Request: fold
Amino acid sequence: MSGHPENLEAVDSNRRKLMVAAAAASLAGAGLNLVELAMAKTSSEAASKLVRWGLLIDTQKCGSGCDACVSACNAEHNLEDLGRPETDAQWIRKLDLVDQQTSHVDSLPMLCQHCEHPPCVDVCPTGASFRRDDGIVLVDKHTCIGCRYCMIACPYKARSFVHENLANQRSWSPRGKGIVEGCTFCTHRVDVGRTPACVEACHVEGGGAMTFGDMMNPDSEISLSLKSEPSRQIREDLKLNTGVRYQNV
Amino acid sequence: MLLRGLACLLMTLFTSVSSADWLDIPRGKGEQCIEPTEIMRKQHMEFLFHDRDLTMREGNRSIRHSLVDCVECHAQTSQQQEAIPINASGQFCAVCHEAVSVKIDCFSCHAAVPDSSPGYSGSMNAGLPESVNALMKKWAAMP
Reply:
């Protein structure tokens, strides 16, 4: 009787090890399958946590005078110029960074950075600001009360507030007075396997500076570029882990 | 909530008193709506509430009840071949909503006419309304 419990324990411990190994193996297998599935998201599937959409912008290829991405965004979402630049909606804008010493100019588009830890979500009192499972940060316009805390919290000045009644909204981009809005990474396109309008425009009319893709997939173009070449997050000191990365700034 | 409750009450009273046949409701395209008319009359707002979260929060684009699809089938065209907003007086949404005095604000943000612009890039058709026949096929295939 005295040795028996020890033997049992030994057997149990071995079995536990075996079970842990088996579980790990099956998890790895399931994980791989899920990743493949996630890549092939159809329009009827929900956004997956195994995908993180990201955008890599090579500022060397981004021309100072070029605003193809901005006009594509405006056309896609019908962000009309109301002649009031201080309050007109702006989901993406071009910035020229001038080095004070050398006068070297870096030109880059600035938009919602789709942070992993978005300050806009932290401060939203109603839960309207949220992060989708695939990393896209959005405003639930049915829940937004227009308090604009998110606009103050965002270090990138990426959101706009609609101050007046609008007309001619696109069916895929509802917008209205009293609501905060910002870049959606063109979810209506991404959900059906297309790239955002700005990225398409950058390749068709601009310098091809933008690479859009899944940062969780190690074989995607964006992941390979991020791995092989240096890139930066704007305000990386805030540790927001942005979904938009820049090269050559 | 109060407004919704009131709306439901009014709608129930309204439909029990009359079959709404005395209202001149413009006909939609196609033979039959995605749900029987009696159900749509009472529950269309619930269908829309449910499915909007599926699309926006989860990114599922193949929802059965979509406001865009409502507009596609039910918006009328003027004699000048221009689309009339679905919430304009005498139009599909407005006829009943005016009769029961229930205000809708869907269309202060959502498009009240079918898309006339493809957005950026002419090749783009994601988000553009499908033809009515394509819609009927899509719905038939859905559970």
